[in-house]
Write a structure and sequence with these properties.
It is a single chain. The chain has one domain. The chain has 3 helices and 7 strands. The protein has helices at residues 7-18, 22-32, 82-91; strands at 37-44, 50-57, 60-66, 72-73, 97-102, 109-115, 125-134. Strands 4-3-2-1-7-6-5 form a 7-stranded antiparallel sheet, with helices on one face. A hairpin with a 6-residue loop joins strand 5 and strand 6 (109-115).
């Protein structure tokens, strides 16, 4: 006799298994309580690439600077806060491939590698966090 689970139970089990550490990482980040920090994020995709230092005050981007050239960039756009990185992980959960790694101490994503569709060329995007520095509040 074969046991058949109702679809709701199967869906719940599948969604829990797919979490891949996101819930724990978000809890670590929330416990960090950091609303003022800087983070260097490297972006690799078919768009302008590079490493950007994002300075965050009260949860909002205030300064975005290209690490290599020192050029200031407009806030928003390609440079991301930690909350933005978590959003990218959530958005990527339906992708063909999603690889995510988290900082074991602070919980923020250190690697997000997304390939939304295996049939589409140049739709992949990779975010790598290379430096995180808590900042004292002003």
């Amino acid at each position: 006799m074969r046991l058949r689970l109702p679809p709701v139970i199967v869906l719940l089990v599948a969604s829990c298994a797919f979490d891949s550490g996101l819930t724990k990482a978000e809890a670590l980040w929330a416990a960090e309580g950091a609303s003022d920090y800087s983070i260097d994020v490297t972006l690799l995709c078919a768009c302008p690439v590079g490493t950007y230092r994002v300075t965050v005050r009260e949860g909002q981007q205030t300064i975005v600077q290209a690490v290599k050239s020192g050029e200031l960039r407009p806030a928003g756009g390609l440079a991301l806060t930690v909350d933005d990185l978590f959003d990218r992980v959530q958005e990527g959960q339906g992708a063909h491939r999603l690889e995510v790694e988290y900082d074991p101490r602070h919980g923020f994503p250190t690697l997000i590698d997304i390939d939304p569709d295996p049939e589409v060329v140049d739709d992949e995007v990779r975010y790598t966090t290379v430096r995180y520095t808590p900042q004292p509040g002003e």
